[in-house]
Design a protein that fits this description.
This protein is of the alpha+beta class. It contains three helices and four strands; from the N terminus they run E-E-H-H-E-E-H. A hairpin with a 5-residue loop joins strand 1 and strand 2 (23-25). The protein is extended, with a radius of gyration of 20 Å.
Length: 130
């Protein structure tokens, strides 16, 4: 079976821009629904895992404060994992990837909740579409 293409749907509505000039997104049927999910029991075995992790060393600086440092760490990972190990056949280096080959864009998002991250994701989709 041969796949000849795919369609990506954007829920951006260019007619809806708030007073700060940011896009307002239409509801996403794959994300925005009225269904309440039941996560009971998901974390039941976490207490055992926490006890096992008690002997691990403390993480000194889990998230660097410098965005450039985060970008460099990410570039190093992309270079080693995606390009050097050829996990992605479309990645030539940490700054060249895709079909056709083009520059890689790195965006640092310091969102702290899922809504902020989701909004940042869709802003990037809009940026790429333009």
């Amino acid at each position: 079976k041969q796949i000849t293409g795919f369609t990506a749907k954007s829920y951006r509505n260019p007619d809806k821009v708030n007073e700060d000039g940011e896009y307002q997104f239409d509801p996403d049927p794959f994300w925005d629904d009225d269904e309440e999910w039941d996560f009971s029991g998901v974390d039941d075995d976490d207490d055992e895992k926490i006890d096992e992790m008690a002997d691990l060393p403390e993480i000194v600086d889990p998230i660097p404060q410098d965005d450039e440092e985060i970008t460099q760490i990410t570039r190093n990972w992309v270079s080693k994992m995606m390009a050097d190990l050829a996990l992605c056949p479309f990645t030539a280096s940490d700054d060249r990837s895709g079909v056709p080959m083009g520059p890689v864009f790195y965006k640092i998002d310091r969102g702290t909740d899922i809504e902020q991250m989701y909004e940042t994701y869709w802003k990037e989709v809009v940026r790429v579409e333009q």
